[in-house]
Amino acid sequence: MEIIYEDNHIIIVNKTVNEIVQGDKTGDKPLLDTVKAYIKEKHNKPGEVFLGLPHRLDRPTSGIVVFARTSKALTRLNEMFRNGDVHKIYWAITATKPQQNEGKLSDMLIRNEKQNKSYVTHNNTKNAKKAELEYKIIAHSDRYFLWQIKLLTGRHHQIRCQLSNIGCAIKGDLKYGYPRSNPDGGICLHARNISFIHPVSKKEITVTAQPPNDNLWNFFVENNK
To answer: For 104, left (φ over 0), alpha (ψ -120 to 50), or beta?
Structure first.
């Protein structure tokens, strides 16, 4: 487990591909439990360790996950995420280039709970929610393109769905139309950077997480120093 920030109120971890953030029907050990065990051992905590989860990250996605170590921090972080006061930057790799090297995507998304998948739909569709992001192509190799994405909303599978909708499915993302899986079973979507005002100290917090250690990600990291 890679911890990239820690204090008395929050702890920020760089999640690996295919690690689940909280328990699900698979029964696999979630990151939440791993972080709890770390805190219990490091600080010799008796009894149950409090750890709140103000946001989520999809299982096949890597990168930044923020946990709250106190109820005060959790309440405030929940509100900050809800109000858009937490600024998130993602990196994504696709094999297809968008028509424009930078721009904004604005769509209405509808979530299918049974399929655990989101779809772009019409404005008048019941329960549809507006999804917006800004993107920029910041590097490319012979075969792939590196996107820098700023989320303006936080919808279910938003980046995966919106990129797929313009013909740019994320590398490895079979669910949203990429033809082949990645060797590690994940997708090339990484929560790269997060910035916010600390919920208790009120200091500005900005952290960056290194992508998975493989040849393609390493190529793009080297070309973006």
So the answer is: beta
